[in-house]
Amino acid sequence: MSTPPPPGSPYGPPSANRPQAYGPYGPAGRPYGTPVSVNALAVAALVLGVLCFLPAAGLVLGLIALWQIRRSGQSGRGLAIAGSVLSSAGIVLWALVLSTGAASEVWEGVKDGAPGNEILSLAKGDCFDAPGGLDGDTFDVDRVPCEGRHDGEVFAVVTLPGGAFPGDTKITGIADEKCYALQDQYAMDTWAVPADVDVYYLLPSRVSWRLGDRAITCLFGNTEAGIKLTGSLRGDPTTLGTDQVVFLSTANALDTALYEEPEKTPDDDLTAHRAWAARVHDVLGEQIEALRGHPWPAGARKPVAGLVEDLEDAREEWRKASTAGDAGTYYTHYDKAYGFVDGPATVTARKALGLAATPPGPGEDESRDSEAEV
């Protein structure tokens, strides 16, 4: 038995052969003929998915968009699905890139293909101008010949290990340790480095680190803003003779040992000073042996022999300082030992070998921290 249609109904009861009547507003209460809006989050999800930028955010936006579309009846379901799929693929791709080290290859490509951004490809021995100066953030440099005037000269590039960004403080500490230790390998004749030249470094930023930048660029620059370097400071085995390299290697080893003097005074920590004096005594023994064992040219034999005699006297004073029973006795031998450092015999030997012969003035070997961030 069929149920009669309600009064006023043109169709009777709904069936498979008759459409369901919705009234004047259609489904979800929307008037017929009204345009259906596109869900904004669905569009955003698709954009992020196509660009492979912040894929995790693209996936989240796509899922939220699908939920909103089901509740509101908006269009854009296909866009949300496509954005979610592309973002998921982007997440997988980024995970693969980071786990295989491909990000470093991408960074190398950026460095090789970025016109005008030569800071990304500076190498040992390069000279450059920095339009913004060496202090603070440095975004770009112009490589120039070292023979002319320039702001900086790269003397070493230190590559940091991968992993999470260690932070600006950590990277600066590494730069302090590495760059100051490496400067003498590039400019071995420390007497030839002008007093107004100091060590600077270019550091990776948090942004460049994400792209694989791991380079600390160590360089020389003038301590006065706006004052440029002239000519190269390079003085290593590629530019010096064998005799010069041997002499400077022994001299720099002694300088390194002397720079390690304890911060506290002998009155406050005599034990530490005696231990340091013993290390200087040992380094002097190695220096004397190296100078004696090298076949010096005729013009340098006598000057070097005279220097060796001074070094032997200095070594004996350091030995006595290392066994001093009180601070006063230590100071006595300490002062005598330093009297032989960079004295007339050193100047004479340097002249004979064609090296700089003017000793650095007091305080000229003290360095300050100077950094710039890429």
TrEMBL record:
Residues 41-96 form the DUF4190 domain. Residues 1-24, 354-374 are annotated as: Disordered. Residues 1-13 have a biased composition (Pro residues). Residues 125-226 form the Septum formation-related domain. This is DUF4190 domain-containing protein. Keywords: Membrane, Transmembrane, Transmembrane helix. Residues 14-24 have a biased composition (Low complexity). The keyword Transport does not apply. The chain crosses the membrane at residues 40-67, 79-97. InterPro entries: DUF4190, Septum_form.
